Amino acid sequence: MKITAAIAQMDPELGKPAVNLARIRDMLREAVSKGAQLIVFPECATTGYGFSDIESAYAVAETIPGPSTRALYTFCRENKLPEGGPYVVVGLLERGSGIQTVYNSAVLIGPDGLVGTYRKAHLPFLGVDRFTTPGNTGFQVWNTPIGRIGLLICYDLRFPEAMRALALEGADIITLPTNWPDGSQNAPEFVTRTRALENRVFVMACNRCGDEHGFWFFGRSQIVDPTGKVLVEVGAQPAIGYTTFEPDLAREKRVILRPGEFELDTIGDRRPDLYDSLLTKKAA
């Protein structure tokens, strides 16, 4: 079964959730009008990223479920597609239960409501992540009518264990809302392709664009297939990129180049009995 997928690259305004949510809805409307069944938005799409302190971040963070997730669910329900979807992945700041606790989160929402929430596990010393709480949701995969979907956020890409964990959980598609600033161009150039190839999954990486708090975000949102081929990539301006693919292709992990002579399986050929040090050793 082929699906139509889209990456919705935008330039969020810092600290203006209502403005950003209106832009998200406009882009969703456009994408769904073109048949998009899965649409991915950037990290912190509803709030922006470059907060200077936890107080200003907490002021625009919201609970999940909350205003943004309810609005997105309403949109998906009212625009349900006969072939499945729409499903939307959006990055937002989530209020935790503790005093001024904020998670950098992403949600997966469809026509039947909130499907899942992921809290960013790996936090760089950058932007709002200087103040957010490390995520505790683990790496989950959600089964939907359009495929098995896993979520990561931005810096998680740098840790191969995260995407491998989702692949082992059966993910067909791994979505990656991100805020790649200038200096991170190697991420779309090399890392997304490598992760897709080594795990034999589809990767939908959606960056933001524009300037914020002294940082330039270069865009280059892309969708990559399980061979590491870039199916679509957009430039440095707000844009929606579209492609079609078959999620089921990610379930064939064995690559047969010459039957009986040259076959590879980067999942089946693993040696977990030799990997204990990944869990027990700290950096020297």
Give a verbal description of the structure.
With 284 residues, the chain is of the alpha/beta class. The protein has one domain (3-253): Nitrilase/N-carbamoyl-D-aminoacid amidohydrolase. 22% of the residues lie in helices and 29% in strands. It has helices at residues 17-33, 54-60, 67-78, 160-168, 186-199, 277-280, and strands at 3-9, 38-40, 87-95, 102-110, 113-119, 141-144, 147-151, 173-177, 202-206, 209-212, 215-218, 222-224, 230-233, 239-245, 255-258, 262-264. It has a 6-stranded mixed β-sheet with strand order 5-4-3-2-1-14. The protein is globular and about 60 Å long. The protein starts with a strand and ends with a helix.
Write a concise synopsis of the structure shown.
With 284 residues, the chain is an alpha/beta fold.
Comma- or semicolon-separated keywords:
Nitrilase/N-carbamoyl-D-aminoacid amidohydrolase, six-stranded mixed sheet, 284 residues, alpha/beta, globular
Determine the number of helices (DSSP H or I, runs of at least 4 residues).
6
CATH superfamily name? Answer: Carbon-nitrogen hydrolase
Structural class: alpha/beta
Average pLDDT taken over every residue: 97
CATH C-level class is Alpha Beta
Order of helices and strands: EHEHHEEEEEHEHEEEEEEEEH
Distance between the termini: 47 Å
Instruction: Give the DSSP E fraction (strand runs of 2 or more residues).
Output: 25-35%
Question: What is the second-level CATH architecture?
Answer: 4-Layer Sandwich
Q: Which stretches are poorly predicted, pLDDT < 50 over at least 5 residues?
A: none
The side-by-side strand order for the widest beta sheet comes to 5-4-3-2-1-14
- Summed up, the domain count is 1
The count of β-strands is: 16
Alpha carbon gyration radius? 18 Å
Taken from the alpha-carbon principal axes, the silhouette is globular
CATH topology label = Nitrilase/N-carbamoyl-D-aminoacid amidohydrolase
Q: Tell me about the largest β-sheet.
A: 6 strands, mixed
